Amino acid sequence: MKVIVGGIIEKDGKYLLVQEAKEKAYKKWNFLAGHLDFNESLKQGAIREIKEKTGCDVELDGVCYIANKVLEDDLFVMVVFNAKLVKETIEFDEEEILDVKWFDYEEIINKMDNELRENYIKTAIINQRNNLIASNDIVSVLND
Asked: I need a labelling partner for 38 at 20 to 30 A (CA). Which of 1, 12, 107, 121 fits?
């Protein structure tokens, strides 16, 4: 099982997306996410992944999307946080990311169907835009 964590960052009506460099999603735009590391909380993983993908520092103030997907021989669970930008410093590993760019809501929702990695990106952004954000209080670390 894989756990994917990440975040949606909105600033002035625009959303920060990354363009994937990996072969299976080459040139597709995605929100800021990646695999949770061992011995890492969901929140720690999301903050780390956002930093690795964009160079930006964030604070998490809620959860805007949770999903799972059953694959032929595996399962993944995704937790996407609403992330507030603390420091915008765009830096990224060019082996993983081709570009980092701000897009306005209408462009993502109405014009990027074939450019997005998956349709769930729209769902997470729509949830964030509609303030469908659960409190961080629902996220716990069981061994604390």
From this structure: 121
